[in-house]
Design brief:
The chain has about 190 residues and is mainly alpha-helical. It has a domain at about 80-190. The protein has helices at about 10-30, 35-45, 45-55, 55-80, 85-95, 100-110, 120-140, 145-165, 170-185, 185-190. Keywords: DNA-binding, Repressor, Transcription, Transcription regulation.
């Protein structure tokens, strides 16, 4: 049992601590193996104190997912990509450096296909936001920016699954570079037949 540290932290700092502890525990045990008591113990809180900050176990899961998205976007845009292709390459490099987080996301995204999963709405909205963002970046780079955006998501997700399953033989960054060379065809060449 952990000693309860009663030091009062500012709300934002306490929430950050809760998300970090939860992320670690989910990576170790999965969402269904996560106990609110373990998160509370890891933060020096009681379960009611923890619930004060996150509302519920479902709220805690969404907070973890939101934080991961924020950190990923900040990391990608710190690299100052100037095109859709560079933005995608930066995201793939980021993901290649954090296989446990990518695995966590892949599992949760698959589990959340069932409507009663606590992250069902989160992943549905995230998918829509991602396609919209990539579509905006694809304006002028493709005849059908939304189709290109969906293809990018499908390609990234598929390559990530192969990389997670066969890490010794699949290099995520190299595979992305090869595939993206075919995916990002200049608009003028799209109509040509090989």
């Amino acid at each position: 049992m952990y000693r309860r540290d009663r030091a009062r932290l500012p709300a934002a700092e306490r929430r950050r601590q809760i998300v970090e502890v939860t992320t670690r525990l989910i990576a170790e045990r999965g969402f269904w193996g996560l106990s609110m008591q373990d998160v509370a113990d890891g933060c020096g809180l009681t379960v009611p104190g923890l619930l004060h900050h996150v509302g519920s176990k479902d709220g805690l899961l969404v907070a973890v997912l939101d934080r991961r998205d924020e950190e990923d976007m900040r990391s990608v845009f710190e690299q100052a990509p100037t095109s859709l292709r560079e933005t995608c390459a930066a995201l793939v490099r980021r993901n290649a450096a954090q296989p446990e987080i990518v695995r966590l996301f892949a599992v949760l995204e698959a589990e959340s296909l069932t409507p009663d999963h606590p992250a069902h709405t989160y992943f549905s909205q995230r998918q829509q936001r991602t396609v919209e963002m990539l579509s905006e970046l694809a304006e002028g780079e493709a005849e059908d920016p939304a189709a290109l955006a969906r293809q990018i998501v499908a390609l990234m997700d598929g390559l990530q699954l192969q990389w997670l399953r066969y890490p010794e033989s699949v290099d995520l960054v190299s595979e992305w570079d090869l595939a993206s060379a075919r995916l990002f065809v200049p608009v003028a060449e799209e109509g040509r037949t090989p």
